[in-house]
Write a structure and sequence with these properties.
By secondary structure, this protein is of the alpha/beta class. It is about 35% helix and about 15% strand. Helix 4 packs parallel to helix 9 and helix 7 runs parallel beside helix 8.
């Protein structure tokens, strides 16, 4: 649970009927053994973040929580890709490219993708929400709470959280299911930035909530 919230309040926040679990850039070319960003991949695995994401996905599948995977990729010819920041230009020179249709953009083990999962792919930008189908899909699903997991705590995760909050969703971040580089940057980002706008919790707390029996109520309205 979270300090200041009762067990009932926390369970209501994570009601499977109005919650979506988002994995961000948990693809083989980012967090897999052949990552374009080996330091980030090492931290994601050694910190336990990738394993915790897999646990959350499995629990979501078993609890009726919708899972959405946000994948960053590019066309081989680079059309439509962002070039207005140093990060994009550096990524274009990496030895492993996140090309559409390649192994690099498949979701990395041990995360399992179910038939009912939604996969949203973007060719541009820093955020999985800005300029993508994510917001429209969340609204159609009746989502009110977005659980944000994945990489990196440096760029995509804060972008996702800020965009979710700006769009009217309640963002929940399991602190042990995100990763960035260097490793000690992630807790600093959480403490000084994400904690101001999101509910910070742990994987185990979310798992406990989804396993707990609950009284079902009618669907809540989507953010306006």
């Amino acid at each position: 649970m979270v300090s200041g919230q009762s067990r009932e309040q926390f369970a209501a926040l994570l009601d499977p009927a109005t919650t979506v679990l988002l994995t961000v850039e948990c693809q083989q070319g980012v967090v897999g053994p052949d990552s374009a960003l080996p330091e980030l991949a090492r931290v994601a695995r050694s910190s336990g973040a990738l394993g915790n994401i897999a646990r959350l996905v499995a629990a979501a599948h078993g609890s009726g929580v919708q899972v959405m995977h946000a994948v960053a990729e590019s066309r081989p010819d680079g059309r439509g890709a962002s070039r207005n920041a140093r990060l994009f230009r550096a990524a274009a020179r990496l030895p492993v490219q996140q090309h559409t249709g390649t192994t690099a953009v498949r979701i990395a083990p041990p995360i399992e993708v179910a038939d009912e999962d939604l996969v949203v792919r973007r060719l541009h930008g820093l955020s999985p929400l800005a300029g993508t189908d994510v917001d429209a899909l969340l609204r159609n699903l009746g989502c009110r709470t977005l659980v944000v997991t994945g990489v990196s705590a440096n760029v995509a995760i804060p972008n996702a959280v800020f965009d979710a909050v700006n769009l009217g969703y309640t963002a929940v971040v399991p602190s042990d299911a995100i990763a960035g580089v260097p490793a000690d940057y992630t807790p600093a980002m959480i403490r000084n930035t994400l904690a101001l706008v999101a509910t910070i919790t742990t994987t185990d707390a979310i798992l406990g909530s989804w396993k707990a029996p609950r009284r079902r109520s009618g669907p809540a309205p989507t953010p306006g």
